Amino acid sequence: MRRTLLPGKPYPLGATPTPIGTNFSLFSENATCVSVCFFDESGKQIDFVALRERTAFVWHGLIRDIKPGQRYGYRVEGPWEPEKGLRFNSNKLLVDPYAKALTGDVSWKAPIFPYDVTSGDDLKRNDEDSADGVPKSIVIDEYFDWEGDCPPEIPLSDSIIYEVHVRGFSKLNEAVPENLRGTYAGLACESSIAYLKKLGITAVELLPVHHFIDEGHLVDRGLRDYWGYNTLSFFAPMSRYSSSGDEGQQVVEFKQMVKTLHKAGIEVILDVVYNHTCEGNELGPMLSMKGIDNTTYYRLVADAPRHYMDYTGTGNTLNLMLPQVLKLVMDSLRYWVTEMHVDGFRFDLASTLARELHAVSKLSSFFDTIHQDPTITDVKLIAEPWDVGDGGYQVGNFPVLWAEWNGKYRDTVRRFWKGDSGLLSDFAYRLTGSSDLYEMDGRRPYASINFVTAHDGFTLCDLVSYNQKHNEANGDNNTDGTNNNDSWNMGAEGPTDDPAINDLRERQMRNFLATLILSQGVPMICGGDEFARSQNGNNNGYCQDSELTWFDWKLTPSRERLLEFTARLIHLRRNHPNLRRRKFFQDRVIRGSVVRDIAWYNTDGGELGEEAWTTDWNRSLALMLNGKTLAITDEDGCPIVDDCFLILVNAAAEGVEFKLPEAPAGSPWRQVLNTENIDDPFAAEEIGEKVILGGRALRVFSDGPQ
Fold first, then answer.
1. pLDDT, tens digit, for every residue of 359-396?
2. Nearest Cα to 196, choosing from 167, 226, 227, 170?
3. Which of 197, 348, 458, 584 is the most buried (most CB within 10 A)?
4. Domains of the chain (ranges plus CATH)?
5. Which residues, in sequence order, are CB contacts of 368 under 8 Å at separation 6+?
6. pLDDT tens-digit series, residues 224-264
7. 161 forms bridges with which residues in the sheet?
8. Which stretches does DSSP call E strand in 266-418?
9. Which positions are catalytic?
């Protein structure tokens, strides 16, 4: 069939349907010819059209009668000079970097490598056609009735983030209709929404939903990529999570999920991977950008461009120093905000994005571009502030507008509750918003995304149940994953029938959760920790798309207790602005008198002196938060006051006696939380001038009414 080709437009990039056909546009500076190939539902190529127009290195053309639903891919011709970084091979079908939907999986048995795999010589070209083994891009109709959808726009200071996997969350939940389990629709169904609302979180942070592929070595082992940090397309939602189809229906289902969550007052934050792609290094497959223009899209070794710079540990690094690649990332971010209505992003290995030449820089073009874009600066921006390159650990060093996964918070809190010595001062900083990291550069406590566990590492239950990782199921002889020195098995390795050990573990989980949710900053809960989800000691579940990582919704009494505990803690935080301050603590003058925001006390009720802060053996303290000094007002401009809170912490194995200091307003203290109390941690207890704080325990008192 001969198709009519019109000049079309260079922008927008990608496939854009019009009333008379579809405009195709692809950037390639070094290509000599670009063709669009069309496929039927069986995967057979039925036609192709060479794009004749080239504007500022953008190849474009409007092809008549191509409608939404059409499958397509690109073939790009150019020099095959791998030693110079040029790897064009028109026998390899390529995914459109701007494709809004993909259908089909990568077949590692197909000739998807551009070189001779048999010899392993990446300089020797392979000319077999790869189309049978490459996902096809889909032309989509972008219309969707949002019905006046409005983002919740929850201030970051008031946010409680729930890191969750779309598939793992509902896959085993019998309250979710069977055909929706493990999908976007399953996350947004009535029972899922009810659970999230009861828990009290304000945002879900979804593990990667950009379309990704399963690595070949995992497929060979009968495994597949679960986490999703192996991106193929920065615009297309992962089709695996769609219950309604993969011919564009995944786009509609994702939008419906966002709309439903927004109606429930829950924001959607995406974990995004713009630092690398699934194409690997010179020995990796050719699926998209490597064949479109390798020297443009990837960072190559300057004096040996046959090879790739690898700051990510995955084989390649996206070349954000070039304007066109930076435009690709920015276009993707804007698309997910404007067309998919997401509320923010968590940037995987964000230090890589900030690298100018080799060093990580606050003045990088990536940050400059982000900060001048009104669409992107209006949503939540969260950095994972490290990568695997030299100088990549940048906790506390990202610019204003950015929040960070606070790795120092995680490490300090784990070590403190484990019982390590010499951590009192550092623990105090983490508990009060990490002013040592964020105050001097103009940021606020909510720049700190506090977490104890995340998808990468032990779950909270496993953190207190295992000394050693147990990743045997991954097939790497338990050599993968981090060697975590902050876990403490509380007397036994793994599950045990010993009630004393189980009580200790449960208390330690309550301690971690209470510390996390009562700390200033933004708490992030790893999904399932609220009911002691376990991965049987596997601290690297990236390839376990199975019951090992899926949420087990059959709750035992102890797991139900922990869930109720977490929900009540979250609602305590949400009800009290004193527990989620927008500014760092400071002394202030009220009616001519100096009033303190915060005070630290020793066990004798006196203020903590310098010696107590620096003594290695000291593992206990009391923290008073003065709720009468909140520098905020209500909608009518009236000052807001809140309860004062006294938080007692003891990480030692033995109990200690605390003399309670007087509350700022002179009102009596009443207990609101005791992590020692298994049956009802929130039960009121009669208290006197002194209280006993047990070993490895936390108690909270308030001067507010009952």
1. 666 657 888 899 999 999 999 999 998 777 777 788 88
2. 170
3. 458
4. 5-138 (2.60.40.10), 156-270+322-462+520-577 (3.20.20.80), 584-702 (2.60.40.1180)
5. none
6. 999 999 999 999 999 999 999 999 999 999 999 999 999 99
7. 203, 524
8. 267-272, 300-301, 304-308, 344-347, 355-356, 359-360, 380-383, 403-405
9. 348, 384
